[in-house]
Amino acid sequence: MSFRSGFVSIVGRPNAGKSTLLNALLGQKLAIVTHKPQTTRTRIQGVVEIPLKKKTSSEPGHPAAQVVLVDTPGIHKPDTHLDKRMMQEVHDALESRDLVLFIVDVTHRLPKTEPENTRADGKIKTTGRMALSKAEDDFALQLIQRLKQTEGGCPVVLLLNKIDAISPAEIMPLIAHWSGLYPFAEVIPISARKKINLDLLLDKVVGLLPEGQRYFPKHQLTDQPERFLVAELIREKILLLTGEEVPYATAVVIEKYEEPTERPDAKRPKGAKLPLTKIAAAIFCERTGQKAILIGKQGAMLKEIGTAARKDIESLLGTRVFLELFVKVQEEWRSKPGFIEDLDWRRELEQIAAKQAAEAETGDLK
Ligand SMILES: Nc1nc2c(ncn2[C@@H]2O[C@H](COP(=O)(O)OP(=O)(O)OP(=O)(O)O)[C@@H](O)[C@H]2O)c(=O)[nH]1
Question: Where is the stretch described as G4 (predicted)?
Fold first, then answer.
């Protein structure tokens, strides 16, 4: 059996569980996860190596494969410039893919036509779970529908996520409902949080990928620079620790990132301290009131955010970390294209590369 490889986009509306799934598949915390929608702002790639599975009497088996997973911001109707930027990320992710995993949260909306959801007068029972925004589901489905029209098409696998939170009897009606809306290549009920059916999912993914070589070296987990992941971890703590008003108005920019000269996995005498990474980050918010909340009484909130983030960053990097946080006000940053462009780590990298190239060139001329 020959090797398979490909780019697999995970798409779905906010809070469907995309980041949780990515992390579960990678077995390491990579995309940040919180209970608040729209946590994921830019695409995050993770690489999963899937070993060969030999054919047995009960299993068809599959070849070894490398799956490049692309997490996307939740699909929603764009309002601000930041929203538009996030939706562009979704479009981009859909364009460069071999397979799409369309993930829906089964606790949000049950099929409307099922008898148990229909009252005696024919009206739909609107329980909390059936709730909310049909418009958002429809919008997400529209994006998927567009894939059908693109050249060559691309298989879409529907993942019914959070099945741990509903009763088993509710799963079949959901499968029937969604199968009627789009010709999905597969419909798989999963729980990203409880890791239910994830092996089955990976088996199906390998089966749907084209034959091809690795895109990334075998042990590379992600193509994201660590400094971007660090900014995401800080942003996660802000989301978790501050109140409703602040989180969406914050952006984290890494201003200093000094890696230790010594490798974290280098041999060192027993009891010797791990090397130290020095990081300074600015937290941008839109108003002075938000700044006050982020700093807290006598700096208590900022300290809490910093301590929680530092612990996670230390386990991500495998070094000790000295983390300095500053809070800055940048009015209406969410509507300023230039500012948002600068948040993009890829652009940041391009700028660093351009600067280094210019420096090298002037060095050559000397
Ligand atoms: N019960 C249950 N909860 C889950 C499951 N998967 C994710 N969640 C929860 O759903 C919430 C949202 O999960 P995320 O992974 O951040 O969702 P997302 O789709 O990446 O969200 P955005 O970044 O906003 O687009 C978190 O509180 C998760 O713990 C699951 O399988 N079961």
Answer: 161-164
The pLDDT, as a whole number, for residue 114 is 46
Q: Which domain holds residue 285?
A: 226-335
The confidence score (pLDDT) of residue 279 equals: 94
The predicted complex's ipTM stands at 0.97
CA 29 vs. chain centroid, Å, equals: 10
322: phi then psi, degrees, rounded to nearest 5: -105, 115
Question: For residue 343, is it within any domain?
Answer: no
Provide CB contacts within 8 A for 91, sequence distance 6+: 143
Q: Which of 236, 233, 224 is nearest to 45 (CA)?
A: 224
Q: Hey, which residues does 8 pair with through a beta bridge?
A: 69, 99
Q: Which two tokens stand for residue 315?
A: 């386990």
Q: What is the CA radius of gyration of the chain?
A: 23
Ligand 1 pocket residue status of 15, Cβ below 6 Å: yes
| Residue 74 in marked binding region | yes
CA distance 227 to 340: 17
Residues 177 and 309 grouped into a single domain: no
Residues 125 and 264 in one domain: no
* Residue in 10, 13, 15, 76 to alter for ligand 1 test, most ligand atoms within 8 A of Cβ: 15
Neighbours of 263 (CB within 10 A): 12
Residue of 9, 108, 193 best suited for mutating to test ligand 1, as the one with most atoms within 8 Å of CB: 193
The 3-state DSSP class for residue 101 equals strand
The total number of residues written for the chain in this structure: 366
Which tops the pLDDT comparison, 270 or 94?
A: 270
Model-level pTM? 0.63
